[in-house]
Amino acid sequence: KSIHGAIPVGYLAPVSNYVVKLASKILRDVKESKMTMLGLLKQCANAIESRDFASCRVVGADLELYLYNQLKLRGSWPDISFRACYWCASTTASIGHAHDGSFLVAMKYLDRGVILGLNRQELEGFVSYVET
User: Fold this and answer.
1) CB-based burial of residue 69 (10 Å sphere; 0-12 exposed, 13-18 middle, 19+ buried)?
2) Quick one: pLDDT band at residue 29, thresholds 50, 70, 90?
3) Would you say 44 and 88 are in contact if contact means Cβ atoms under 8 Å apart?
4) How many Å apart are CA 76 and CA 21, to the nearest integer?
5) Measured between alpha carbons, how far is 100 from 103 in angstroms, rounded to an integer?
6) For residue 32, what pLDDT is reported?
7) What is the value of pTM for the model shown?
8) Which of 25, 26, 28, 102 matches a 20 to 30 Å C-alpha distance to 81?
9) Residue 4 has what pLDDT?
10) Residues with Cβ within 8 Å of residue 64, at least 6 apart in sequence
11) Cα–chain center distance at 73
12) Which residues, at least 6 apart from 58, have a Cβ–Cβ distance to it below 8 Å?
């Protein structure tokens, strides 16, 4: 690990691909009425694709908070796309924080994602990197 937390490419590439692919699928599947969620989800995918880790932190956290508040307010999400979007948000925020060396914060986002159904095995390399 670098003292700055720059994520090695071997860990970054698979976790980045996961978020971009899942975000693309969600964007195809959800209805246009979910504009806030879609706008932030697009920003998450763009931040990861451009390796803008500061934006990963900000937009990932914004989307995660928005979706978490929707869950608290309603007691559930209207459909599965909200859950998958939450996984993208928590993973994106985690990437941004891990890149800056804030591994405890990065782990917090991953833990919340896993609690809400994120498949840890798909991100095993990145999760192991953040944990160690």
Assistant:
1) exposed
2) low
3) yes
4) 24
5) 8
6) 52
7) 0.80
8) 102
9) 57
10) 86, 89, 90, 93, 109, 112
11) 21
12) 96
